[in-house]
Amino acid sequence: MKDNVFFKKIIFAISLIGPGLFLIGYNIGTGSITTMAKVGAEYGMMLTWALVLSCIFTYVLMVAYGKTTLVTGNTALFNIKHKLKYGTALAVYIIIALVIGEIMALMGIFGIIADLIQEGSRLLFGGEGFSTLWITSVLVVALYLLFWFGNYLIFEKVLVFFVALMVISFVVVFIMLKPDFSTIISGMAPSIPNEPGVLRLIAAIAGTTCSAAVFIIRSTVVAEKGWGIKDLKNEKKDSMVSATMMFVLSVIIMAVAAGTLHVMGLKLENTVEMIKLFEPIGGELAAFILILGIVGAGISTVFPIILIAPWLISDFTGKPRNIKSPMYRWLAFIGILFGFGMQFLDARPPMIMVFSQAFQAFILPAVAIPVFLLINNKTVMKTHVAGLKENIGLIAVILFSLLTAYFAVAEFI
After folding, report:
1. What does the alpha-carbon distance between residue 309 and residue 92 come to, in Å, rounded to a whole number?
2. pLDDT-derived band at 75, boundaries 50, 70, 90
3. What is the Cα–Cα distance from 67 to 24, expressed in whole angstroms?
4. Contact assessment for residue 360 and residue 211, using Cβ atoms and an 8 Å cutoff
C-alpha cells in the first residue's frame, strides 16, 4: 500500500512539471550541446557566468509569460497582438523571426544527428557507416508518422523519455571523465576573453538557454495543460525545475568539454570530432553514450520545432490548437522537409547551430519588453500585476537581452 502511495506521488509530481519537461526537451538540444561544448573547449569554464545569468533570466521570463497566460487565459502572441500598441506588427515580426531561426536550427539538428548516427554505425560495423541521406530520410519519415498519429500527450511522453536519456547519458560521461570542479567554480567570476568569436559564443549561450522561442511556446504549453490562476504556484515550481535542469545539463556539457578538449588544447570544430576525441579517453562505451545523449537531445527538439509555425499562427489568431488539422499537418510536413537542408549546404552543421542560437539572442528583446508591458497592465492582469521583485527581474532581463543582442550583431558585423 505504501509503495502504491509513493508511486502515485511520483506520477503526480511529474504531471505538475509537464510543461517544464517539454521545454527542457525543446531547449536542451543539439544547439545547446554544440554551443556549450564549443564554449568549454575554447574557453574552459570562463563563461559559466553567462550561463548562470541566462538560466536565472529564463526562469524570470517563463514565470512572467506563464502568469499572463494563467490570468488572461490567452497565449502570448494573442495578448501581444490585442493588448499592446503596434502589437499586430510586433507579433508578425516575432512569428517571422522565430520561424526563420527554428528552420536554421532544424537543418543543423538533422545534420548533426545524421553525422552521429553515421559515426555510430561506423563504430559498430566498420567502413564508412550508413549514408547520411538515408539516415535523414528514415528519421524524417519516422518522426512525421509519429506526429501524424500522435497528440500532445504522446509528444510529452516521448520528450520525457529523451530528456531522461539525455540526462543519464551526459551524467554518466561526466562521471567517467571526472572534470576538475575547481574550474567550474572559477568560471562564475564574470570575464570576457579578448579574442575574436567570444561575443558570438556569449550571444549563443544566451540564445540557446534564454531562447525567445521558449517563452512564446511556454504560454502555449501552459494553455495546453489547462492550468488557471489557481495553479500559479505550480507554474512557478515548474519554471524553477525547467530552468534548474537547463543549467545543470548545460554546465555538465560545458564541463565535460572543458575537462578534456580544453585541457588538451583542442577546439571543437565538428560534433563527430568530439566523439572521436572521447573514444580514446572513455573507450567506445563513452562514444556510444555520447551519441545516444546527443541524438536523444536532437530528436527531443524536432517535435516542438515542426510545431512552432502552426502553434504561432494559432496563438496569433486565437484559433484552437489542433495538431490533426490540415494546417498543422501541412506546415509540419513543410517544416520537417528542412531536415534535408544540410544535404545541400556547403557548411558544417555545428556552425549552422551556433549561428541559429546567436540569432535567437538577437530577437530576445522583442519578447522581453512586451511581457514587461503586459504584466504591468492593470487592464490585462487586474489584481495580479507584477510586484517590485518581478519588475526588478524583468528590467534586468531586458538589459541583458539588449546586451546579448548587441553582442550578436557586433560579432556578425
Report:
1. 12
2. confident
3. 19
4. yes
Residue 88 pLDDT? 92
Task: Look up the pTM and report it.
Answer: 0.79
SS3 8: helix
pLDDT at 12 over 50: no
Which amino acid, 185? I
Here the cell at position 111 is: 545534420
Quote the pLDDT of residue 156: 58
Instruction: Identify the top-confidence range among 93-102, 226-235, 274-283, 386-395.
Output: 386-395
Instruction: Give the single-character DSSP code of 339.
Output: G
C-alpha cell at 292: 545516444
- CA distances to 54, 374, 388, 389, 391 from 396, rounded to whole Å, are 11, 16, 12, 11, 8
Say if CB 170 and CB 17 are below 8 A apart.
Answer: no
- Residue 281's pLDDT is 59
Do the beta carbons of residue 206 and residue 31 sit within 8 Å? Answer: no
- CATH code: domain 22-409 is 1.20.1740.10
Q: What is the DSSP string of 163-203?
A: HHHHHHHHHHHHHHH---HHHHHHTTS----SSTTHHHHHH
Distance CA 408, CA 413 (A): 9
C-alpha cell at 217: 511556446
C-beta of residue 51 within 8 angstroms of C-beta of residue 209: yes
What is the rounded CA–CA span in Å between residue 210 and residue 58?
5
Lowest mean pLDDT among 47-51, 110-114, 195-199: 195-199
C-alpha cell at 315: 496563438
Q: Please name the residue ranges forming H helices in 17-86.
A: 18-27, 30-43, 48-72, 76-83
CB atoms within 10 A of CB 310: 21
CA–CA dist 125, 19 (Å, integer): 39
Residue 75: which of 210, 189, 215 has the closest Cα? 215
Q: How many Å apart are CA 251 and CA 257, to the nearest integer?
A: 10
Cell of 215: 517563452
**Domain map (residue ranges) of the chain:** 22-409
How many Cα atoms occupy the beta-carbon half-sphere of 134 within 13 Å?
Answer: 6
CA 158 to chain centre: 16
Stated length of the chain: 413
